[in-house]
Every structure is written in C-alpha cells, then in structure tokens.
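ARCHIVE RECORD
Type: protein–small molecule complex
Small molecule: flavin-adenine dinucleotide
Source of inputs: curated submission
Record status: active
Notes field left blank by submitter.
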Amino acid sequence: MKNKYDVLVIGGGPAGAIAAKTAVEKGLSACLVEKRPAIGTPVRCAEGIGKEALHEFIDPDPCWISAEMTGASIVAPDGFLMKLESELAGNKVGYILDRKFFDRELVWKAAEAGADVAVKTRASSPIIEKGFVKGAKIECCGQVTNVTADVVIAADGVESKFSRWCGIDTTVPVSEIMSSVQYVMTDIDIDAHSTVFYLGNEVAPEGYLWVFPKGKRSANVGVGISGKKSGEGHRAKDYLDRFVKKTFPQGKQIEYIAGGVSVCRPLDCTVADGLIIAGDAARVVDPLTGGGIYNSMYTGRLAADVAAECIGKGDVSKTALMVYDKTWRASKMGKAIERNYHIKEYLIKQPDAKLNEIIHSVSKLNLKEFTTLSLIKEIMMVNPKLMLELGALAVSIR
Ligand SMILES: Cc1cc2nc3c(=O)[nH]c(=O)nc-3n(C[C@H](O)[C@H](O)[C@H](O)COP(=O)(O)OP(=O)(O)OC[C@H]3O[C@@H](n4cnc5c(N)ncnc54)[C@H](O)[C@@H]3O)c2cc1C
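STRUCTURE (tokenized, with ligand):
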C-alpha cells in the first residue's frame, strides 16, 4: 500500500469493489481497504438479484451462482399462494448468488485491473484539512498509516461509520431498520427454481419472510421485521424458528446470519468536500424489497466515474461532486427507491385482511417484466380501489 492515491475506497463489498475497479479503468490510482480478514465472509445477505441487473456489471459464472430462478410466489397472511410467472419475460427472473465467491470475484477483478487491495485493514478515522476529506488513518495489525487521496469513497456498508466521522448524519430510525435473521437450510422440500415470500403480522410484522433456493434441497430461509416490532419473545429469530419448525421440521440449519437492512430514505446528501458515499452506507437499499446489491454496484460505479471527472478537472469540492448525488437520484434506481419507499410505507400500515384481499384479487400473474414495478402495476389493474388509496403515488406508478 502506498501513502497517496487518487482514490481511497473504504469497504470491499459490491459498492467498494466496483468503485475501485472503475477508478483504475478510468486511469486513476486506487486502493481498497477491507476491515475483515477475507472478502465476502461472513455473508449477510439472501443473495437474490435480477438477471438483467447482474448482467449490467458482470457475466454470470457458475462459480458464484448457486441457483437460477424462473418464478416466484407470494404467500398471503391466510396461507393463499399467488404464483408469479414469467413466460412473457423469457424466464429472465433472477439468480441466487453465492456471495462468498461473488464478492471475492468483484474484488479480484478490481485488483486485476490495477487497484491495490488490503484486507484486515481498517479505516479508523478520516484525515480532514480545512474541511476537506483528504484520506484516512489506516490500521493494519496494530500499525497506523496515513493514506491520503484526492477523493475518498465511503462504501463501508449499513454499519458505516466513516461518513459520520466526517460530520454527516447517518442515523437510521429503529423503525426503518429491518432486523434480519437467516439460516442456510438443507434437506428441505422446495421448488428449486422459485423464490417464495411470506407476508403477514404473524410471520413477519412490517417485513417479510423469504425462502431463496440455493440448490435442489437447500435454501436461504430468513426473515426481516421492523426494528420497532422486535422485543423479548418476538425477535426476528423467534419468527424464523416458528416458521422453520412448522414448514421444514426435518430441515437442517448449516449456517446462521443476523444483520440489519436500512429501509429508510437515502441520506439527504451523499457527498462532501473530497468524499463520496456509495452503497448501503448511502442508504440506497430498495426500501420495499431490502435489495441492495445492484444499487451498491450502481452507486459504486457512478462514484468512481464522478471522482475521475472531478479529479481530472482539479475540483473535488462538494459542489463539483454533487453531480454524483444528482445523477443517482434522477436515475431509474433513484426514482425506484423514492417510489418504493412510499409503497412500503403504505403496505406496512395495512392489516392482514387487506393484504389477503390484495393477494386474493390475483391468483396468478404472468408478468411481462419481472420487476417490483410490473408486479405493483398488475395488482393495481385488478384493484381500482387501491389506486384511490395510493392517491398521487398511483398516478406516478401508472
Ligand atoms: C439478511 C439480509 C438479506 C439481504 N438480502 C439481499 C438480497 O437478497 N438481495 C439484495 O440485493 N440485497 C440483499 N441484502 C442487502 C445487501 O446485502 C447489501 O445491500 C449489499 O451487501 C451492500 O453492499 P455494500 O458494498 O454497500 O456494503 P457491504 O456489502 O456491507 O460491504 C461493506 C464492507 O465495508 C467493510 N467496512 C466497514 N467499515 C470499514 C472500515 N472502517 N474500514 C474498512 N472496511 C470497512 C465491511 O467489513 C464490509 O465488507 C440483504 C441484507 C441482509 C442483511
């Protein structure tokens, strides 16, 4: 590791890896630091991603794809199952990744492209001069080094501290943190090519429970509930254990993970003088689905693109870096986050009876496109009342 780079990237998840790779491809020197001893572990993810979303960044490789999905189902609170099929979309549904290897592959590609990578290396505080972020103190095996950079990209995930150390308010209200627990389970009876989502207050208050197949008889089985619904005897793990006991009594749990997912609005501003915030650290997770892999890669790439442009012009002030903030907010991804935030806020207020009504109204949907938006559009088509309840939002969805 050198003492000076054009770009210093903090965090070796999808956002950081794509940022570092893009930066070096743009001709910049870049270093990525990851505090964990190995990239990709422990996995804190259900590992689902849409096919087209993935293809935008990398060609699929069987080494890090656990399973290919051709359909999905939603189970209503009363147990009614709605099937989503995608004949019209050419079965372009999605993949369940193996993030241990996927994250490694992304960082590997960044390193191959020319980025320096350091694991078990933590950014422990920012270097700030005259209000500008100028790099970070980097800690490795008890040694602290000052690493300076023209632009620091904070891609340090949902637990991000770096931006807060730089004076940015990154607080997420408890009610907007999904408290999540997941088992990797094996020896279970599942449809190996279809994801299943369970809704309802008994199963996952203000959240959902998922079964994402990883093979013929194994799956990520997890639940996310609103932080404000969590308490003694009704924590995420209690909900998951009840479900597993009932649905997969013979199944074996071979891995346990717990983590938080922010389902709030993104940070008010995702840049500062010399600093760009990307991925979960910027709170760009889809608030409706909790999906953040694509959004992290998208913002990671954009962060590096904008850094390269601004470094080239010799101006890395907040004003110059604002192009990043404005671009992602105006993008399809930014608009989806805003729209899905409202839909999430509407749905979490609905009683189970209402969710049953909505799901019963469509027993089987054949989607033209396999996206959250197309699902919502179809549901609204058969529920004109829902359009009234959603008001102005319904207009923007149509
Ligand atoms: C239970 C669960 C299920 C999920 N399921 C899905 C899903 O199915 N599909 C989907 O799209 N998304 C899912 N997500 C969200 C997805 O995992 C994240 O959105 C994605 O990993 C964010 O990528 P990132 O690069 O921004 O952050 P991360 O992947 O969290 O990477 C951040 C990295 O920064 C490192 N770091 C932190 N601080 C420092 C520091 N000071 N110095 C150096 N390194 C540091 C961390 O160790 C970490 O490796 C899920 C999340 C959870 C918790």
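CURATOR ANNOTATION: The chain has a mean pLDDT of 92.
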